[in-house]
Amino acid sequence: MPPNLFSSLLDKQVRRRKVLQYGLGGLLAAAMPVSVRAATWHQAKTRLLGFAAVASADLRDDIQVPSGYQAEVIYRWGDPVSAGPEFNQDASNTAAEQLLQAGMHHDAVQYFPLPKGSTNSDHGLLVMNHEYLDLDLIHIDGSHIHATPYSSEKMIKEQHAHGVSLIEVKKKNHDWQIVRPSAYARRLTANTPMHLSGPVAGHELVRTIDDPDGRVVLGTLNNCANGKTPWGTYLACEENFQYYFVRNKMIEKAPRIERRWQRYDLGFSYYGWHQFDKRFDLDKVPNEANRFGWVVEFDPYDPEHIPIKRTALGRFCHENVAHKVGRDGRVAFYSGDDAQFEYIYKFVTREAWDGSQGVENGHLLDEGVLTVARFDDNGQMQWLPLIFGELGLTPDNGFQDQADVLVHARTAADILGATKMDRPEWITVHPHSGDVFVSLTNNNQRGVDAQPDKDGANPRNQNHFGHILKLRETDATALAGQWQVFVLAGESDSKGEIFACPDGLYVDERGVLWIQTDVSSSALNQGKFKRFGNNQMLAADPTTGEIRRFLTGPVGCEVTGVAMTPDMKTMWVNIQHPGETLSLLKNQGLKTSPETPRAVSNWPDHHPEGRPRSATVLITKKDGGIIGT
């Protein structure tokens, strides 16, 4: 679509935004307070939630699910992906062994039925991300942050513990098992070759000494949440990539590059990889960081498929990506940039997807328009296009071409005047209404000193507890729409169980909104957060607003990632970083370390010589019924 045509359409939609509202109810809603608008959108219906809520869990080192349900650990850090080595409880597995095992810190998960194209609920593929590492647990004697020697072997093991797992699962005699060996099973790591595609591929901003063509990248990392495409491929999102790169020199002759590095917080690393891998030293390979922060697509059904980083979707700290198909067949992909005062984006493909094609539809992710959200206080919203040459994205503001805009999407969004959000994380689309839900986890800096003050879509200063927005559009491709606050977390007058720091979101085929929480270890189980207990997963009725607590996790964990089989009788949930040291326990002398790996948690194995391990939990009803009923 020509840029001038897109801008013309945007202006037309802005002028016609009253037509885009929802009839008389929508016209009235625009003038109502958020709380009143929320009530007008609720409609009476049959109760969705049929289980008895579980109580909050305070320092309980186990999983808790409702009466009538059962939870089973099926895939832990270090478990073999296919035929491979078992996990050593003292974490003494080698780098070569880690390559064949589950990575660390399970995050988002998706289920793909087998055979391809079926809706089989008894046999399929589980694909999940491994976001980052606990350096106190990954090695038997610690990492570069400890008083022990650091080595190339340790670095490679850490790189192999990142990325993505794909395992084959099958139900046999009513019990689920991992198929080993499996022709489908594979691992993606920080060293897996991947292609760059789209407007940035081959651009000077992504060329390096080892890749002068700027088209082949080694690895993916800090894969947080994920998504699926309508054509059945997996999307892994690269989030906090900035924390892997170091630099010691200031770029004195290139202040523009320096400012752009600062905009992405580049220069400080939690890891020591730069000591043995020059890619992570920006003084040596300054463009390497530009090759991360993308959405990665691959075909889970083809173990030989080379993953592709789709640059048209923009470079930022992608939390997840959710899609919605428009009436004309074009597809919208929504993604949040998970950091304080960052933005919500939507990419719309230029062409419609072809239902008769599979992975061949992938080229659609290379051509389209990336937009960023502006939320007005009257309940209206606009999607602003990140197009070179328009709305200030010009050489006068430091942009040279469209690739430059996409690599520096944050800076482009700044110029467009998009709304700075309270850590936009997961986004999910209701399969029936098309409503889009966005979790805003928290932002304790809003309204502090010179930071932005509260606004309509971010209604609390020092937002400790977070909230969830609901967006409504006339079509997936629309450039305008409406928004409302679905729930303010931490409020005692909410319809059901209270919670804090919403993160993972998923709407199942019945329309239940599953909410997962991520209260940080610095706050968990103490002070204003004590009443919430351990991190948890809740179920909400999007129509009535009723919320019930469904699951609580072990000590120190984040509950993240949820998927279901098509018959909705099996649920997969990931438990990340159990045993992460809580400030509460650290003050009592309890700290996870190489010497005391079990000080905080020993879930899920509770092995006398073991350590806490991130894991995938399988949940079913004892009567074989549908989850949530």
Description:
The chain has one domain (3-36, 46-59, 68-239, 293-621): Neuraminidase (6 Propeller), CATH 2.120.10.30. The chain has nine helices and 30 strands. The chain has helices at residues 3-15, 23-29, 34-41, 95-98, 152-160, 255-263, 402-407, 409-416, 583-586, and strands at 69-76, 106-113, 123-130, 163-172, 175-178, 186-188, 193-197, 216-218, 223-228, 234-238, 295-298, 308-310, 322-325, 331-336, 340-342, 344-349, 368-375, 380-385, 421-422, 424-429, 436-440, 467-472, 480-488, 502-507, 513-517, 536-540, 547-552, 558-564, 571-576, 615-621. The chain has a nine-stranded antiparallel beta sheet. A six-stranded mixed beta sheet has the order 8-7-12-11-10-9, with no helix packed on it. Strands 2, 3, 4, 5 and 6 form a five-stranded antiparallel beta sheet that branches. Strand 13 (322-325) and strand 14 form a beta hairpin. The longest helix has 13 residues, at 3-15. The radius of gyration is 23 Å and the shape is globular. It starts with a helix and ends in an 8-residue tail after the last strand.
